[in-house]
Amino acid sequence: MSSHALVVDHKAQKEERREAGSSRRSRPVVSLVPRKAAVEALGGEPRVSLLPAEVNDYHRAKTVRRRLGLGVVMVLLVVVAGVAAAYLQSVQAQVSLDAARATSQDLIAQEAQFVDLRKVQSGMALVQAGQAVGGSTDIDWKSYLEKLQVTLPAGVAINGVVIDSSSPFVDFVQSTIPLEGSRVATLSFTATSPTIPSIPAWLDGLAKLPGFADAVPGSVTIQADGSYQVNITMHINADAFSHRYAEEKK
């Protein structure tokens, strides 16, 4: 073989090697490592799950079912606690009711021991009520006549008295004369005076009596012994009522 042939063959081999290198550079590089694994390889240990997707779905569903079960158990615990609390309250209320009933029965039994006393108290209350009604028009005539005697001049004595007073059940007859006030009683008395009586002075004294409404002088007559007898009719209003039974009731 000649030297020229060797040079040509050497050039041909260089061309083949150049074409092979360019073909290798243009061929795409395929990575056998998954993208996620490649990313994890930068900061941690790469892991690849070779299990089927159905297995992963099963595990996720199992986790969900476990959580739902725990939620149901918690709800049941809350319900049981509420029922227990309600039951305790019901028991306490029943105990309180039984205690109140027992106390009420004891009070009733003690009250039965005082039945007679209650009857007496009721009778007393009835009597007091009757006194209050019957005494609503009461006038203490003894005290009133003593006050009447004080208003008369010295030496004048009351000889006779006629009283007409009102009743709790019947209204007192009122005067039909205009300008005369209402009255609840009429007091007519006869007095003897050793001297000629001063009727206006007598009337002024009578006006100081409680319940005085008005007074009408009657006749003046001379007696055999030289004294003078005077008749006076006095009307009395409600201010003369004693109200003593109402005070006793209080």
Briefly, what is this?
This protein has 250 residues and is of the alpha+beta class. It has helices at residues 3-26, 35-43, 53-112, 115-134, 141-151, 199-206, 244-249, and strands spanning 157-165, 185-193, 212-222, 228-236.
Report what the structure shows.
The chain is α+β, with helices and mostly antiparallel strands. The chain is 55% helix and 15% strand. It has helices at residues 3-26, 35-43, 53-112, 115-134, 141-151, 199-206, 244-249, and strands spanning 157-165, 185-193, 212-222, 228-236. A 4-stranded antiparallel beta sheet has the order 1-2-4-3, with helices on one face. A hairpin with a 5-residue loop joins strand 3 (212-222) and strand 4 (228-236). The protein is rod-shaped.
